[in-house]
Amino acid sequence: MIQRIQTLYLLVVAALLAVTIFTPMAYFSIGGEEYTLTAFAVRNAEGAAVQPTLYMGILLAMAGILPLIIIFLYKHRMLQLRLCIVEIVLLVGSAVMTGIYYYLSVRFFSQTDLVAKGVHAGIVLPLVAIVFAVLAIRGIFKDEMLVRSLNRIR
């Protein structure tokens, strides 16, 4: 199970999403006050939630748990392939939701005196996770083809 390369790819996907959930994705500076976009809310410097982003957080959490489930389904490779495709759909959805919430936050703060806005590295981690999920699909598919070729030889 752990010696397969796709297991390592799926562990990297889960780790990237865990980092995404627990780190800020963007920041907004308004008249000396700092706001950060996180997975579950836009928070001010004191940590109070200004605008909830609960749906993005739930989507990221689901996308972070699914690779750990996929790892333990190593005897069912076709199910692993299907769940990896579901994982990619969740990752694309979370990337879209992150973009939507960033846009909504910019609109929310545009009514005030917005001094600076920017993104942290956490905002691109779901896109990097998509690459590793695709690599995991390739590894699972190679395993399935190897098993099928060995069954043909018998």
Summarize the structure.
With 154 residues, the chain is of the alpha+beta class.
Detailed description of the structure:
64% of the residues lie in helices and 16% in strands. With 154 residues, the protein is α+β, with helices and mostly antiparallel strands. A five-stranded antiparallel β-sheet has the order 4-3-2-1-5, covered by helices on one side. Helix 1 runs antiparallel to helix 4 (125-153) and helix 3 packs antiparallel against helix 4 (125-153). The mean pLDDT is 90.
Order of helices and strands: HEEEEHHEH
Percentage of residues in DSSP E strands: 15-25%
Q: Assign the structural class, choosing from mainly alpha, mainly beta, alpha/beta, alpha+beta, or little secondary structure.
A: alpha+beta
Helical segment tally? 4
Oligomer: single chain
Helical residue percent band: 55-70%
Give the end-to-end Cα distance, rounded to a whole number of Å.
Answer: 24 Å
Number of strands: 5
Query: What is the global morphology?
Result: elongated
Task: Look at the structure and give the mean pLDDT.
Answer: 90
Query: What are the segments in which pLDDT stays under 50 over at least 5 consecutive residues?
Result: none
Radius of gyration: 19 Å
Strand arrangement in the largest pleated sheet = 4-3-2-1-5
Largest sheet: 5 strands, antiparallel
